[in-house]
Amino acid sequence: MDAGTQRPSVCQRRWLHLDKRLPSRNCTVLCQMLLLAWLLCSGPTQANAGDPGVPSHPTPSPVGDAGRGEILYKASCMVCHGPEASGTLGPRLSGNPILSNDKAFKEIIRQGRHMMPPLQGMLTGQQLADIHAWLHTLH
């Protein structure tokens, strides 16, 4: 071997093989780990005043930022839904009719569905709105 060439580590070799279909459990764990890593690196979020489970007054849905949404999507959703949301292990999200139903979209992300792990408490309302806004830019 050339002195300047290094062999990839075990971890790097595993990541190089992510293009192969992963069993659903591995995908679920991987999605949750990626999302958790993203949330830990994105900084603190505002704590709720009062009871964290029930807002004291109705709050309007945040306006999503597609630029932030793309970054969030690529950090946490791309592994199962593909780089352009065209679907791999998870369904195609690009142009999916669920995007027109904001409430159903958020419920699926929070509660999970089929192979989709529940992400309740892992994404803020703003982060959900950002991902949703980016998905709306795809055709």
Detailed description of the structure:
It is built from six helices and no strands. With 139 residues, it is mostly helical. Helix 3 crosses helix 6 (125-136). It has a domain at 64-139: Cytochrome Bc1 Complex, Chain D, domain 2. Helices cover 45% and strands 0% of the residues. It has helices at residues 10-16, 24-41, 66-76, 78-81, 102-111, 125-136. Mean pLDDT is 76; it is low at 46-51. The protein starts with 9 loop residues before the first helix and ends with a helix.
CATH names the topology of the domain at 64-139 as Cytochrome Bc1 Complex, Chain D, domain 2
Strand content is under 5%
What gap, in angstroms, lies between the N and C termini?
A: 46 Å
Total DSSP E strands: 0
| Mass-distribution shape | globular
Classified in CATH, the superfamily of the domain at 64-139 is Cytochrome c-like domain
Instruction: Please estimate the helix content.
Output: 40-55%
